[in-house]
Amino acid sequence: MKKRVLVACGTGIATSTIVNEAIETMCKEHRIDAEVLQIKVSDIPAYKDSAHLLVTTTIVKERYPFPVINARSFLTGVGVEDTKQEILEELQK
Amino acid sequence: MSTLYMDESLILQDIQVDTKEEVLQLMASTMQEQGVVKESYIQAVIDREHHYATGLPTQGLSVAIPHTDKEHVNRKSLSVGVLTEPVDFVIMGEDEQSTPVKLVFMLAMDESHAQLSLLQKLMGVFQDKELLAYLASERDKTKIIAALRDVLD
């Protein structure tokens, strides 16, 4: 099944752009067929029932039925390999 | 892609403030005076920082990248603020945990999804601790802009 990945930040235009690109690149490298959607945090609820994973640079207090991964490391480089591994494991499930 | 506007008037040094709100107010007001953002940007960027914090601990000194929606922006631009003493910004993606920020990169962005390479290059700056230290200590604003242009253009 094709996985739907949400990439969210506060504006949906800044930090999520970086993360979006990084995940698309990862999917290509690992031949994972995923739909990556770059959205605002406020738009997450619309995908509550259709998404498989949320990767975000902001805090998410609501509970969702899918895992949430913090992607700040894509911006700072600190711990980025661990984050990539975490995302990959979710996508390969 | 329109180019990123940087100008000596948008490089603010020796900022002496006690709170993040003060530095945000100062930098956003300066951008508004220079005409690159609308007056509404000032409050919008402060509110945004409260809801979606932008402090980033790096391998070198900590930075923050305050920004807000494009409707408050006139011209794609970057303002750099160097604080005399760091002030605490909440870390991006955290609830309360903060980081002492020395360098503030205030972004005004005017288009969606079309600034990937610029943002990637900016993140490259954050991953270069020598460059961050240089930006925080160099006195000559022309040199600061040249160093950033080298990386960002």
UniProtKB/TrEMBL annotation, chain A:
Q: Which GO terms describe its biological process?
A: phosphoenolpyruvate-dependent sugar phosphotransferase system
The record's listing under InterPro entries reads: PTS_EIIB-like_sf, PTS_EIIB_2, PTS_EIIB_2/3
Taxonomically, the superkingdom here is Bacteria
Q: Does the keyword Transferase apply?
A: yes
Q: Which CDD domains match?
A: PTS_IIB_galactitol
The cross-references to PROSITE patterns, in alphabetical order and at most eight, read: PTS_EIIB_TYPE_2
Keyword list, A-Z: Transferase
Q: Which Pfam families match?
A: PTS_IIB
Q: Which GO terms describe its molecular function?
A: protein-N(PI)-phosphohistidine-sugar phosphotransferase activity
Q: Which residue numbers delimit the PTS EIIB type-2 domain?
A: 3-93
- Protein name, UniProt field: PTS galactitol transporter subunit IIB
Q: Which organism is it from?
A: Marinithermofilum abyssi
Organism taxonomic ancestry: Bacteria, Bacillati, Bacillota, Bacilli, Bacillales
UniProtKB/TrEMBL annotation, chain B:
A Pfam family name for this chain?
A: PTS_EIIA_2
Domain spans labelled PTS EIIA type-2: 4-151
Q: Enumerate the InterPro entries for this protein.
A: PTrfase/Anion_transptr, PTS_EIIA_type-2_dom, PTS_SugarTrans_NitroReg
The superkingdom of the source organism is Bacteria
Protein's name in the database = PTS galactitol transporter subunit IIA
